[in-house]
Structure formats: C-alpha cells, structure tokens
Amino acid sequence: QMPGTARHDREMAIQAKRNLSKTTDPVERLRLQCLARGSAGIKGLCRVFRIMDDDNSRTLDFKEFVKGLHDYAMMIDKEEAQEIFQIFDKDGNGTIDFDEFLVTLRPPMSNARKEIIMQAFRKLDKSGDGVITIEDLRGVYNAKHHPKYQNGDWTEDQVFRAFLDNFDSPYDKDGKVTTEEFMNYYAGVSASIDTDVYFIVMMKNAWKL
C-alpha cells in the first residue's frame, strides 16, 4: 500500500513553519506556507486555482491569483503577491499557467532523488508509454489484498483508481498518472526528508526496487 508518509508529513510541516520565519524569498515563503499544510499543500493551492478557472484556460490573471491565495488563507500582502506573480509570469503576458506554477513551486530535488522516483515510475508503467494507467497496475499491483476489495465495497478497478488518484493532478483526475504528476507528488514527500540516503531507502522499501 502507500508509502507511510504521515510521519514525514508532520515533520515537514513543523520544519516548514520553522523555516518560514527565516526566509525573505517570496516564492520560498509561498512554498513553505503550502508545505506547512503537508505534502499535498501545493496541490491544495492548485485545486483552489482550478475552481476559480471558470473558462478552463488553465491560466490565472493577477486578480484571480490574489483571490486564490486569499481563499487558501495564505498570509501574503499585495506587494509580495505582485512579486511572486511576476516571477511565475515568465513571458510577461499578465497571466500564469498552472503547470508552470506547480513546477516552480515544487521543492527542488537532487538528481539522486529524481532518479529513484523515476525507477518507481518505470516499474509501475508496465507498458512503458510514460503514463501509468489501470491497465499498467494490473501487472504490478495486487488489488485483492486491499481491505475495501476484501469486504466487497470496491471492485479491482476501483482499488486501482483510488491508488492512481493519490498521484493524479488535483484538478484533472483522469485515472492516468504522468511522470510530471508522479514527480509533483514525491516532491512534496521529498521536502520532509532531509537526506538523499533516507529518501532513497524509503522509496526502495515502498516500491520494492
């Protein structure tokens, strides 16, 4: 089942709160405020933005950006928001794109961590097409051990779908997990783990690599 991340999550949240008082970099402050809510904090902010994106353009203008930060109860003043917005608005056209936002906000990871995450991804991506689907999981993951399958609540497919939803983009749950989505998920987890060695051991154990 899922790698035990609850403890890491708590440690990370405490650490993020501690670091908040030390940093002046506006993007880092936003990142830490998200991470203070656990590894899904960045996803949560994207979910808020998603709800506001009425025309499904997957982009936000400054007004929407500020409203989203406000709705998510982020402690950021107008000037700081302006500064952050400009960093994310790479081409200066007055809008920012969700995916770019996610990638920039994602905690940076060492190559060693990215490599082990990709090993796990490749193991799950049975067909090797760069996307993990229910079909892929049939070959690698046994749904019959899942308690909800055992008590008859869920079919095998529902077990797989719930598993994929862990990693899927919050605003676009389509039962397919891309490398990017898998990386985003583990960037959150990774932020709570200090050393590469420990992160790699955790991944190896979780995915039997």
Automatic annotation (TrEMBL):
PANTHER family reported in the protein's UniProt record: CALCYPHOSIN, CALCYPHOSINE LIKE
SMART domains: EFh (SM00054)
Transmembrane regions listed in the UniProt entry: none
Pfam families: EF-hand_7
Single GO term (MF): calcium ion binding
EF-hand domain boundaries: 40-75, 76-111, 112-147
Superkingdom to which the source organism belongs: Eukaryota
GO cellular component, one term: organelle
SUPFAM superfamilies in the record: EF-hand
Name under which the protein is recorded: CAPSL protein
Signal peptide from the UniProt entry: none
Gene3D superfamilies linked to this entry: EF-hand
Alphabetically ordered keywords of this record: Calcium, Metal-binding, Repeat
